Amino acid sequence: MSTLTATAVAHPNIAFIKYWGNRDDALRIPSNGSISMNLESLATQTRVTFDSHLPEDIFDLNGTRQSGPALKRVVSHLNLIRGIRGTAIHAHILSENNFPTGSGIASSASAFAALTLAVTTALGLQVGEKDLTRIARRGSGSACRSIPAGFVEWNAGETDRDSFAFSIAAADFWDLTDCIAIVEAAQKKVSSTEGHSLAGTSPLQEARVQDAPRRLDMCRNAIQTRDFAALASILELDSTMMHAVMMTSTPPVFYWEPATLNIVKAVAAWRKSGIPAAASIDAGPNVHIICETRAAENVAQRLSSLPAVKEVLVSKAGGPTVLK
Amino acid sequence: MSTLTATAVAHPNIAFIKYWGNRDDALRIPSNGSISMNLESLATQTRVTFDSHLPEDIFDLNGTRQSGPALKRVVSHLNLIRGIRGTAIHAHILSENNFPTGSGIASSASAFAALTLAVTTALGLQVGEKDLTRIARRGSGSACRSIPAGFVEWNAGETDRDSFAFSIAAADFWDLTDCIAIVEAAQKKVSSTEGHSLAGTSPLQEARVQDAPRRLDMCRNAIQTRDFAALASILELDSTMMHAVMMTSTPPVFYWEPATLNIVKAVAAWRKSGIPAAASIDAGPNVHIICETRAAENVAQRLSSLPAVKEVLVSKAGGPTVLK
């Protein structure tokens, strides 16, 4: 072989039941299961070209050659898949996000989902969806949830074999939209990987993990019965529980900014007035407002009028990671 | 007897380890022990006059005749103490706070501490400090901590008999100051009494309660060894843990405002730069910044310059509830 190439497209996902803390940091076996929705409008497209003449791996992201930790993490993932295939050939990775770099939208999920499908395909590996999710998980935990379609559950599992993701409903099963209120474009101060390793220092993490099966059941049922009020309650509770753990870790991690809280309170008031919308916050200050699509335009407009909101990104539920 | 009178003065207190949730709501037996510091500069002065000609109890607070729930709560407390004394005589209560009414400073602790000492004294009851704290507790849980001097611990206990407060250090044992950043004068949306009854609905409350002995030990040790860094860590953690429970109750209770979070983050940054100050938040949006007194003027000035801060109240550690 001299050159082998493949291109894949993946979407980031927003977790309704969050992933925070690992049973095994190295293998990214999570402490609790999680449920998410892929985001159709946001995408990472990644082309992988293996070339026997390359002396080392090259990683270009949004037109910029990468080095340091970003390159290292991609090379580690390449090594994992090269190990499965039994090859040492180097690759050129060309990756583009269609959403603003540094907007605070986590790109590692879509990045490692697209990378996993592109690399396994380019190397000619026959990998089913379940095993793709397991491989993607090793690159970035939440990447496993970007592999299957629509609404996805990640079975926590206890070992590498049983920690995988699967679709619980197609993207068009329930017409939901995520309006993402961007409040700050600055880099995160504490990376997710670092944060996960702190979760166990919170006196509240064990209770959060123990209670997770109950929350997963409530969320799964809410999706399967398209019960927005039930979804709203459980996704807001779960988001707050994750941030409670973060803020009570040693050292404490406050991802919330004053603007974050301002939006959370506004959304709660809107829902009281009858608008089907609920707020969820990932490891950053931005707020994801999950709403029934019929309310999305109204919600996006209201968000835009809040002084603390710089930009609103809007996305419906999205499909699986696919080859292009 | 025809008229019997007594006047008492009590201080509010700021809890370093918070009281949130009851084992018994009616008797106000708390789910966990707590530790606080009395606030010298803030005071409630209460004069009680029992008069056999009065057809009913009268309660004047800051010059305004009270009725409804405020009167009812005071009458209940009078009934408790009248029951101990075996009398049905009515009283005129005249109470004044020297701090802004509606500033968001909890006045129920100093109110029921002063009321308890004035009423028991006017009725000629010989009650020791420990039993005074038990009676005050029945009016408002945290009032028991305003009876003893300085730095006070409330032993949670399991029954009315063993749920009492005691001083662990005199006010002058450690030169600490509370700078209270007032961010909103509006009435609380959820009263403390109502909030306590919601604590058990949070999936995190049990973990918070189970971990309380550890936090109490750390706080008590920090006070006894005058270790500000240790006190800062544990009081900020404990405050955040209480708010984590509040925000994950059903329904959720968010006492934090955007301004609250702004101050908390500012204080954390100041401490990193070497200023001995730490933030604690009660059941409201205001922030108590506990600092070594040598830093108090600097802290108060910095707080005043934050746009969200309306007013800063400053107080050193205070003495016990006393007769006047």
Give me some keywords for this one.
alpha+beta, Ribosomal Protein S5, domain 2, Alpha-Beta Plaits, 4-stranded antiparallel β-sheet, 35% helix, globular
Break the fold down into its secondary structure elements and pairings:
The structure is a homodimer of 324-residue chains.
Chain A: E1 3-10, E2 13-17, E3 22-24, E4 29-30, E5 34-38, E6 44-51, E7 58-61, E8 64-65, H1 68-85, E9 91-97, H2 108-122, H3 129-139, E10 151-155, E11 164-169, E12 176-182, H4 192-198, H5 205-210, H6 212-224, H7 228-247, H8 258-272, E13 277-280, E14 287-292, H9 296-305, E15 311-316, E16 322-323
Helix pairs in contact in A: 1-2, 1-3, 2-3, 6-7
What does this structure look like?
Two copies of one chain form a homodimer. In chain A, helix 1 runs parallel beside helix 2, helix 1 runs antiparallel to helix 3 and helix 6 runs antiparallel to helix 7. Chain A is globular and about 60 Å long. Chain A has two domains: 170 residues, Ribosomal Protein S5, domain 2, CATH 3.30.230; 141 residues, Alpha-Beta Plaits, CATH 3.30.70.890. The mean pLDDT of chain A is 95. The first copy, chain A, has a six-stranded mixed β-sheet with strand order 8-7-9-6-1-16, with helices on one face. In chain A, strands 2-5-10-11 form a four-stranded antiparallel β-sheet. In chain A, strands 13-14-12-15 form a four-stranded antiparallel β-sheet. Chain A has nine helices and 16 strands. Chain A has 324 residues and is of the alpha+beta class. Chains A and B meet through helix 5, helix 7 and helix 8 of A and helix 5, helix 7 and helix 8 of B.
